[in-house]
Design brief:
alpha+beta, 2 domains, seven-stranded mixed β-sheet, elongated, binds 3,4-dihydroxyphenylalanine
């Protein structure tokens, strides 16, 4: 028995020293079914006089194996630490990396300015889907199938009745269908048209739609709101001008110009000598549109307007080609 214990001691220590994974060896020798445990189980067969001696020896063997395991574990820890110190070397003399901070795109900046101005006047934000039904984009807005004004807003069709919205005006319909007046919303978002890209057109662009519906709303309210907006957007000296126009969803309709904030109306390069810049379309919501949305035009009236965010950005920043804003060359974007 003594020899057996000594053999176990020698074998265990040698194996532990050579091992990578000591956990297996702990089980092999000291575990419930381990070799040392098996020996101790056989104590019954040992002569009673011998038992204390064998017992003491067994305890010593156990202590030796445990010490070998602990040593090995510490040795491995040290090795691992050395390895990490070698591989994670940090050269504090290297020059630092310059962190460049980005900023919002000019189109996003304009949209945020518009949101803030209109929220300041008590409007809230409404959003609608970019993939829209023909009904909301056209029909409910008094543009029945085959209406000639559809040609100017040719867009991308998904099916005969589903398309990429060509304007943010469908959000008007969705809001009026779901909410009783008073309504005071703006709706910013992306719109699509089958226009080839040039200096003033893009197949994807952004609009902000506005809608106010309540009892007794007049064209005077429309003018007042738009004048306030123009002064906040382009400066306190800004004037606005209404020119008669036609939109199927408003009656009467107007195109609205702002006095050029560069030359103050005298005519310059930015306004192409006009003194004015066209920035939006507007009008009194057509009675058909109100009744299409379940609002009684005899009780309520409203105004609406729609503007192109790109156009306002170009005016605000003096950008003469819309495509520059989509190329996202940082040398261009950094200027704003
Ligand atoms: N949806 C029009 C367009 O894309 C812009 C517009 C004009 C919107 C008049 C309106 C409006 O709400 O009343 O050309």
């Amino acid at each position: 028995m003594k020899e057996l214990l000594e053999q176990i001691r020698i074998k265990a220590v040698a194996e532990i020293e050579a091992a990578e994974n000591t956990e297996e060896l702990r089980i092999k020798y000291l575990g419930k079914k381990g070799e040392l445990t098996a020996v101790l189980r056989g104590m019954g067969k040992v002569a009673p006089a011998e038992r204390p001696i064998i017992g003491q020896l067994a305890n010593e063997v156990r202590a030796t194996i445990e010490a070998a395991l602990t040593n090995k574990a510490e040795e491995q820890k040290k090795k691992e630490m050395e390895r990490r110190l070698m591989t994670e070397k940090l050269d504090v003399t290297l020059p630092g990396k310059i962190q460049t901070v980005g900023h919002r795109h000019p189109i996003a900046q304009t949209e945020e300015m518009l949101r803030e101005i209109f929220i300041g006047m008590g409007f809230s934000i409404a959003e609608g889907p970019e993939v829209e039904y023909d009904y909301y984009n056209f029909e409910a807005l008094n543009l029945p199938k085959n209406h000639p004004a559809r040609d100017t807003q040719d867009t991308f069709y998904i099916t005969d009745n589903i398309l990429l919205r060509s304007q943010t005006s469908p959000v008007q319909v969705r809001v009026m269908e779901n909410k009783k007046p008073p309504i005071r919303i703006i709706s910013p978002g992306r719109v699509y048209r089958a226009d080839p890209a040039d200096a003033t057109h893009s197949p994807i662009f952004h609009q902000v739609e506005g809608l106010v519906v309540d009892k007794g709303i007049t064209m005077g309210d429309l003018k007042g709101i738009l004048e306030l907006f123009a002064k906040q957007m382009f400066g306190p000296e800004t004037k606005i001008r209404f020119r008669p126009h036609h939109f199927p969803f408003t009656e009467p309709s107007a195109e609205v110009d702002v006095s050029c904030f560069v030359c103050g109306g005298k005519g310059c390069r930015l306004c192409k000598g006009e003194g004015w810049m066209e920035i939006l379309g507007a009008g009194m919501v057509h009675p058909f549109v109100l009744s299409n949305c379940g609002i009684d035009p005899n009780e309520y009236s409203g105004f609406a307007f729609g503007m192109g965010v790109e156009r306002i950005t170009m005016a605000r920043l003096g950008i003469d080609d819309l495509r520059l804003m989509y190329e996202n060359d940082v040398r261009f974007l950094r200027q704003f």
